[in-house]
Amino acid sequence: MMDLHGWIELGLFMAALFALTKPVGLHLARTLDAGGRTILDPVLKPMERLLYRLLRIEPTAEQDWRRYAYSLLAFSFAGLIFTYALLRLQHLLPLNPQRLGPVAPDLAFNSAASFSTNTNWQSYTGESTLSYFSQMVGLVFQQFASAAAGIAVAAALVRGLARQSVRTLGNFWVDLVRVTLYLLLPLSFLLAVFLVSQGVVQNFRPYTSVPGSASANSPSSRTPEQILPQGPAASQTAIKIVGTNGGGFFNANAAHPYENPTPLANFIQILAIFLIPSGLTYYLGRMVKNQRHGWAVWTAMAFLFLAAVLLCWRAESTGNPRWRESGVDAAEGNMEGKEVRFGVFDSVLFATVTTDASCGAVNSMHDSFTPLGGLIPLINIQLGEVVFGGVGSGLYGMIVFIVLAVFLTGLMVGRTPELLGKKIDAYDVKVSVLAVLVIVFSTLGFSAWAAASSWGRAGAANAGPHGLSEILYAFSSATGNNGSAFAGLNGNTAWYNITLALAMLCGRFLMIVPVLALAGHLALKKRLPPSAASFPVNGPIFIVILVGTIVIVGGLTFLPGLALGPIIEHFVMTGTSTVF
Amino acid sequence: MTDLLLIATAGLFFALSAVLVRAFGRMRRP
């Protein structure tokens, strides 16, 4: 049932997101300006200067798009190797009270690729595989660094639109340092303190053993001993949310009571996922000196978000008609795989937000959603996670779609396409299309390989369309750098660990390279003043065309795969007696 | 040995990405 509580919460969520967009956007504008002043300067400026001196960065020296890209690639490669080495050597390193052994090579490779690409796909089980040192240094470092790198790329693309007749896009190292210091660290600190206040654990204790006790129902039998995991969970949970990373401290992620203990903690975490991506739309408007354009992009995102929430909510609250035939009380909707303390709406809201963004944290099991309910997270990822999206990656993905929308509009009316006074030429369209095609080839190519090979099929817990959905979700999630899973798939095999790692690397870096090429090419151009021939990119027509471009490109590309997975499964559930 | 192979795979991927940067830089522009 789509109840009143859900409607009120959805209204509060949208109001809070709208209200926070401008302040976050203004802070982003100051942070992403190398000489910008923030209220945190008295505390953080000395640290910023020290970092520049230690890393030998000349903060006033700007880079062209190629140098910017080389810097990002070198930094990400070094980070990947660092995390890989750390996971392989964790048994020799401190903060390992459970004396966990080294992580297996394929799993370490998967995890290192996963966290350096902001994906946070977790083939490992945190509490039984990784030491506190591995989690805090190996993974949390990447959660900050990959989020900052994503925001840096978005800033470079926005500068490409805002500047004219220049070759430079800023300095990657300066953006990386400033975003980490002035944005991610303070927000994560605040969120971590809030989460501790709600009951999220933050300590270095060994796991707690709770002895069994006499069962209330049957005094002669005893409940088994329980092991309660401990650790520095609040600090990791905070950046996992703020940086749209998604990699939880515990295996159950945000469904674990130590990671997401209260309804308020749940609401604030969901809001914090969208915080920076939403603020980035305001930053876009401010930088291109067309605030209405920023709000138009925000509105297109909000429309797609609300449509997805409502569709998923309807599917999950309707539940499975076969339960009624079996005499199961389905008044609450589909509660399979959901926390009772969160219920249907809070699970649906979390699932939609986490897949609109490239977060991937989960408070319910997406594999247990109804076929159409599960289709929503899947298609959110496949549309490119541009509905607010990941930190940075959402905005640069959306700008690629804007370039394509403007190009298609130009074709329809027979005018030279123009975006914010910049003529869109063949080079811009080619690199934008390549950025979209990389995602398609990686997602569908790896999925097809998995579905056709015994290695791939061995991982899926289900046969038939649901098995295909599990495979398709895994490679969509890896390529889209989301990290959530249809958890019926066992991804911890050598084949899956390596192919998923490659999909994550393709989805991240083979998209960033054309995006930066687009930024570099746009920056070279002059911005012409608006004329009667200019296509307005701030009104309702633009919003409709942008939404249409995203849905049609995504729909045409992935509909055949979805038809064979969740859509056919829906018809099996409702229409025939054949169950795969 | 497995470690070296996996590190080499990652290295190869990033080298390919760097080649792509070069290729986009050389692509003919209007």
Per-chain topology:
The complex is a heterodimer of chains A (580) and B (30).
Chain A (H helix, E strand, L loop, with lengths): L3 H28 L9 H15 L9 H24 L16 H12 L9 H4 L2 H31 L9 H27 L9 E3 L15 E3 L4 H10 L20 H25 L3 H28 L2 H6 L16 H14 L14 H12 L10 H21 L4 E2 L2 E2 L2 H27 L1 H6 L4 H16 L14 H31 L15 H36 L5
Antiparallel strand pairs in A: 1-2, 3-4
Chain B lengths: L1 H25 L4
Describe the structure.
Chain A has 19 helices and four strands. Chain A has 580 residues and is mainly alpha-helical. In chain A, α3 (65-88) runs antiparallel to α6 (132-162). Chain A starts with a helix and ends in a 5-residue tail after the last helix. Chain B has 30 residues and is mainly α. In chain B, 83% of the residues lie in helices and 0% in strands. Chain B contains one helix and no strands. Chain B has one helix at residues 2-26. Classes of the chains: A mainly alpha (580), B mainly alpha (30). The A-B interface holds A 66, 69-70, 73-74, 76-77, 80-81, 84, 88, 105-106, 108-109, 112-113, 425-427, 430-431, 498, 502, 505, 509-510, 513-514, 516-517, 521 and B 2-3, 6-7, 9-11, 13-14, 17-18, 20-22, 24-25, 27-30.
Uncertain residue segments of chain A: none
Largest interface: A-B, 32 and 20 residues
Mean pLDDT of chain B: 91
Which regions of chain B have little confidence, pLDDT < 50, spanning 5+ residues? none
Provide the succession of SSEs of chain A: HHHHHHHEEHHHHHHHEEHHHHH
The gist of it:
With 580 residues, chain A is mostly helical. Helix content of chain A is 64%, strand content 2%.
Properties at a glance:
heterodimer, A: 580 residues, mainly alpha, two-stranded antiparallel sheet, 19 helices, 4 strands, B: 30 residues, rod-shaped
